[in-house]
Amino acid sequence: MKPLPLIRTATSTLPAALVSFAIATAAHSADLVMVSGATGNSLEVTQKIIDIFEEQTGHTVEIRAMPSSTTDQFAQYKLWLSAGASDVDVYRTDVIWAPQLATHFIDLSEAAADVIDEHYPSIIASQTVGGKLVALPYYTDAPVLYYRADLLEKYDRPVPTTWAELEETATLIQEAERAAGNADMWGLVFDGKPYEGLTCTALEWVVSAGGGRVVETDGEISINNDAAVSAIETAAAWVGTISPPGTPNYSVEEARGVWQNGNAVFMRNWPYAYALSRSDESPVKDLFEVTTLPSMTEGEPSAATLGGWNIAVSRYSENQEAAIELALFMQSAEAQKIEAMEGSHLPTRPALYEDDEIIAAQPIIGFMQDVFQSAVPRPSDVTRADYNEVSSLFWTAVNSVLAEPGTAQDAFDRLEIQLTQLRGTGW
Ligand code: GLC
Fold first, then answer.
1. What residue ranges define each of the domains in the chain, with the CATH number in brackets?
2. Which of 92, 94, 372 to mutate to test the pocket of ligand 1 (most atoms within 8 A of CB)?
């Protein structure tokens, strides 16, 4: 059989013919189709919310499961939207996409006028492009450091506040645990594969080293500096020492796999991993805590990248009225409470941080409120339509250093040239 034509994206290869085939022939018995990425238990939780919506409204909704990686989703959605595909009515969108996909989504400001004030204004602002509200907030996101409280106690080590301290503790515990018979123990797991997740992770190293945020708010390309180079080299030295050699191919789910099996002392990950790590089947259930991410340079504040997901309605949808109803339901307190309690996803509604049931189910919620409010945005606001390209150049450069330590200066010299070319006279 002849191989299908392939679309190459930065991190994966999507079969183009399969994609268009799926669009053309998808069983379209539901009133609405919503596409949604799936990390952890995300789809199960979303399905619960959809079940309630269906019951309350009589509409039927098909959730079309998409890859976990936001990068793969973006490539796919851009194709569909550029083709004006009407099969998908509702998109679950990453916080960074609003300026890039704005023209394909309808303005929700009128439909959501009564509820806009119930959300954090900064989140509404992040989804507003040229006065148009392109998506409604679903949950916000910011990563933390997960650590094995039992092991820190066993080896009498403090919770680290710098990456140097973490490296020292990770080395010590990893060696001692291996000597004691746990050959699979690692010090630290994180997502090092070339995708948007690595942009988030590496941005935290660079910002907390005092090395800027790759592209500054005034458009200055700042990444090629000594603090940034040294931050990436520090992280590259972890690969194969305190972090598994496969780290340059890890997404957050591979990192969580090692961690949740009890084989890592520390993990950098988003809050979704909290509910899963505390589930009854989790071997680390009662053994861990979370705290803010360490700083690269002592004295610099810790940095966590701002993430989050939203709900957008396609302007090509043939059932926009029902699609808007669904988007409104997804941003409701009822839906966000389910996301918070079952998926440990952070509400975008301040009132829910006072909700006793959420606090009881997910005790980190109050702490996370502070973390996300001081989280660092990616340069998607300033680079706008070019953001995916900017991010892809950055994650490619960082990933190459993780795979080959000692090359960060060369990688960032090149990156600076590439970004300057991409910017042209814009930004
Ligand atoms: C999380 C964040 C999202 C980010 C992604 C990167 O899902 O919420 O904003 O882009 O991780 O992998």
1. 16-134+307-373 (3.40.190.10), 144-305+380-423 (3.40.190.10)
2. 94
